[in-house]
UniProtKB/TrEMBL annotation:
Spans annotated as Disordered: 1-33
Family, similarity comment: Belongs to the Rieske iron-sulfur protein family.
InterPro entries: QcrA_N, Rieske_2Fe-2S, Rieske_2Fe-2S_sf, Rieske_Fe-S_prot
Main localization category: membrane
Role, per record: Iron-sulfur subunit of the cytochrome bc1 complex, an essential component of the respiratory electron transport chain required for ATP synthesis. The bc1 complex catalyzes the oxidation of menaquinol and the reduction of cytochrome c in the respiratory chain. The bc1 complex operates through a Q-cycle mechanism that couples electron transfer to generation of the proton gradient that drives ATP synthesis.
Name of the featured protein: Cytochrome bc1 complex Rieske iron-sulfur subunit
GO cellular component, one term: plasma membrane
One GO molecular-function entry: monooxygenase activity
Residue ranges crossing the lipid bilayer per the database entry: 54-75, 95-116, 160-180
Membrane topology note: Multi-pass membrane protein
Domain Rieske: 242-332
Subcellular location: Cell membrane
Subunit comment: The cytochrome bc1 complex is composed of a cytochrome b (QcrB), the Rieske iron-sulfur protein (QcrA) and a diheme cytochrome c (QcrC) subunit.
Amino acid sequence: MSSQENSESLPEAQATAHGAVETAGDPFADPGLPAHKPRIQDIDERAAKRSERVVAFLFFLSMVATIGFIASYVIFPVDKIVFIFPFGHVSILNFALGLTLGVALFCIGAGAVHWARTLMSDVEMPAERHEIAAPPEVKAQVLADFRQGAAESGFGRRKLIRNTMFGALAMVPLSGVMLLRDLGTLPEDKLRHTMWSKGKALINMNTNEPLRPEDLLVGSLTFAKPEGLEEDAEDFQTQIAKAALMLVRIKPEDIKDKRELEWSHQGIVAYSKICTHVGCPISLYEQQTHHVLCPCHQSTFDLSDGARVIFGPAGHALPQLRIGVNDEGYLEALGDFEEPVGPAFWERG
């Protein structure tokens, strides 16, 4: 059978030069839109009022949840753990923050969706496709459609919805303001004090035993922590970052600073281990020069002369801890550091 005969046998098709068959008619004809069915809210004002109250309630519930989020920050401690079924043991603060913030955001979304589905106009408005650069008449039509949509949404007429929505949207950002608390320490005096106080024994960091003067030899370097600070404590890292202590025994005649000598015991001087540049732990000691070196940025301090800075970017000397010996012969602190340890901070005033 020839190609001509094939073409005659397909009366509703056309044969192209490459042998492909093209279907007659428009396979993508516009099926049109189904007839519009009004909602109950469109014909019954009482039903519209009910939907309005539902939307307003959701926005109001969002405001209550936002207040709960802020209250949770104030009420619940950071370290409080409780059992909540079925989640198990969780942080009550994290649970409360997540729950209240989730409810606040969900209610705003649910309120907006319910408003759009029940009260805003749902009439389909088809429009022909046009070029990106719309002609003036199209721009005018868009503005007219926008004004019509705004009027049909009832935004101006339904003041209860409008006002509660504004309230919910205005209060949700307050949750973000509360989150700023986690960016740093609250304006208190926590950075000015450590765990050291009068009568607290100096505990060897390696042996976890209290130190006696005879445990330290001339030229030796020992690290200590306050009595009562255990490594398994939840706040150990926070406390040791301020209270870490280094002890060096120097011959009394080699100590140049008068106050340093008065605050020492038999040549044993106690200084903060935290560098005053950016807070690195100091651990390198030169016996002959009595210098300690910070390994991070090479700040160097002279422990025989009030731990003053002799090299590097550190801004001030290491704080000294006044020490003595208790009735049992163990080294003890005679108070806290007189100045904040570590790097300078603007709150010092």
